[in-house]
Amino acid sequence: MKLLEEKILKDGKLPGGGILKVDNFLNHQMDIELFCQMGQEFARLFAHKNVTKILTVEASGIGVACIAAQYFGNVPVVFAKKSEAKNLDADVYSTVVHSFTKDKDFTVRVSKNYISPDDKILIIDDFLAVGEASLGLIDICRQAGAEVSGVGICIEKGFQGGGQRIRDLGIELHSLAIVNFTDDGSKIEFVKES
Amino acid sequence: MKLLEEKILKDGKLPGGGILKVDNFLNHQMDIELFCQMGQEFARLFAHKNVTKILTVEASGIGVACIAAQYFGNVPVVFAKKSEAKNLDADVYSTVVHSFTKDKDFTVRVSKNYISPDDKILIIDDFLAVGEASLGLIDICRQAGAEVSGVGICIEKGFQGGGQRIRDLGIELHSLAIVNFTDDGSKIEFVKES
Prior knowledge:
2 copies of one chain form a homodimer.
Chain A: H1 2-11, E1 13-16, E2 19-21, E3 29-30, H2 32-45, E4 53-57, H3 62-69, E5 77-80, E6 92-99, E7 104-111, E8 120-128, H4 132-144, E9 147-157, H5 162-167, E10 173-181, E11 188-191
Parallel strand pairs in A: 4-5, 4-8, 8-9, 9-10
Antiparallel strand pairs in A: 1-2, 6-7, 10-11
C-alpha cells in the first residue's frame, strides 16, 4: 500500500538491530487518517470472505482493528488479553505466545463467549515478524472451531519468516507493507506480496 | 447517553463485589456501532475545546479513543504504555498508577515526542472508578506543559469517587453513563451528570 510505504520512509526510524521504529504513527501515536485508509484497504482485500468478527491482541493491534471494522459493516472486534485479569471469564481459550521483543512467554486469552464455530474471523495486527502472535490467534480460532478467513497485517518484516509460517498453513495473508533491510541494515526496501 | 445505558442494562453483568462486567461490548468484545455513537457524543460534548490530540492508556481505552478521533477531524491518538518495552523512547513522561482491579502499581509512559506544550489534550478511557488512570494521564499532560481539554469516559462508577477527584481539579469531565449500585448490590441505577 503506497501510502503506508511512503509513511514508513518518511517517519519510520532505524535505530539498528533489525528494528523498524514506527511509534509516531502506528504503535504509540496513531495516525487516524492513515488507519482509515488501511482499514479500507483491508476491507477491499478481504471483501470476498464475509467476515463476521475481527480478532486482534492487545495492545497496539486494537486501534487499527476497530477502525477497520467500520469498513466491514461494523462487525465486532475482540481483543485477546495478555494478562490474567480478575474480570475475565474463567472459561477462556488460551495459548502461549513468545515475544522476541520482550524476550518472554505470555499467555493470551479470549473468552469462549466471544468466538463461536459460526464465526468467520479476520485476524488483524499492526506488526508481523516471527509470527508468534498471529499463530497464537489462529490457534485460538481453531480451538473455538471458527473459520480463519485471513490475516491482515499493517507491516510485515519479510526477513523474519512469520509470513511464510502463516501462508504454509493455507491461510490468506495480506500485509499492507512488507519490509526488508538492506545488507548493511542502514536502509529498508519494500517487497511485493507474492 | 441513553443508548449506552440501555446496552448496560441489556448486556452488563453484575457478578457481585461491586463489579459491573461489560466485556461483551466494551472491554473485551467491542461493539463498533456503539463505539461510533459514543465517539460522536464525545465530539459533541467537547466541540468547544479545539482538541488537538486524544490520550488514552492501553489496552481497553484504545478502541473507543481511535473511533472517537475520527469525529474530532482525525486528530492523532496516543496511548500510554504500561510496561517497559525495548522499543519505547528512553525519553518519556511517566507516572505511577495503582490498579485496584489488579491490586498492583504500574508505571505508565508516554514518549516526550508525542505531547507538546501546544497540545490541547482530551483524555478518553472506557472506565472511571477511583480515577487512578485518568489522574495519571492528567499528570503526564502537566509534565509536558500541555493543556488538558477534558476527560471523556464511557462508564463512570459514581460511587468510587474518581469523578469527584477529577472535577475537583477544575477539569471538564463527561461520562456517557454514571452507574451506582442499589444498596443490596443486586441492581444498578444511573445518575445524571451534575
